[in-house]
């Protein structure tokens, strides 16, 4: 029996968040590196379960990036424009990566 691709998508994103928290303790605050981890989780989800699973991972990851990577954490509004660019570039890169993974896997 194979795992539900949407469950895998959420678990991969949560694993990326856990890895991000671990690397934060070891390396300090390097948000650009952490965005790559969430992109990889979304692309792995798309490879496993198709574009919709990758889209789910991207949505969950975008919430995680917004809440944990953008300063100040847990705020609704962005104080710096470069944080918004970081978030937007994560979403675009993840969506393009998901599309690419699904098409290469098919």
Strand content: under 5%
Low-confidence stretches: none
* Sheet of most strands: none
Overall mean pLDDT stands at 87
What would you call the shape?
Answer: globular
Q: Secondary-structure element order, as H and E?
A: HHHH
What is the radius of gyration computed over CA atoms, rounded to a whole number of angstroms?
14 Å
N-C termini distance? 20 Å
Summarize the amount of helix as a percent range. over 70%
Question: What's the total number of strands?
Answer: 0
Secondary-structure-derived class: mainly alpha
User: Helical stretch count?
Assistant: 4
Quick description:
This protein is an all-alpha fold. It has four helices and no strands. The chain starts with a helix and ends with a helix.
Q: Any overview of this molecule?
A:
The chain is mainly alpha-helical. It is built from four helices and no strands. The longest helix has 25 residues. The two termini are 20 Å apart.
Sum up the structure in keywords:
81% helix; mainly alpha; 106 residues; 4 helices; single chain
Would you spell out the secondary-structure blueprint of this structure?
Blueprint: H1 5-27, H2 31-49, H3 51-69, H4 81-105
Helix pairs in contact: 1-2, 1-3, 2-3, 2-4, 3-4
């Amino acid at each position: 029996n194979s795992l539900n691709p949407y469950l895998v998508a959420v678990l991969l994103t949560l694993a990326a968040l856990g890895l991000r928290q671990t690397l934060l303790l070891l390396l300090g605050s390097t948000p650009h590196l952490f965005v790559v981890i969430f992109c990889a989780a979304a692309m792995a989800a798309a490879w496993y379960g198709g574009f919709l699973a990758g889209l789910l991972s991207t949505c969950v990851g975008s919430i995680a990036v917004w809440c944990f990577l953008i300063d100040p954490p847990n705020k609704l509004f962005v104080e710096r424009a470069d944080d918004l660019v970081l978030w937007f570039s994560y979403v675009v890169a993840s969506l393009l990566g998901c599309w690419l993974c699904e098409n290469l896997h098919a």
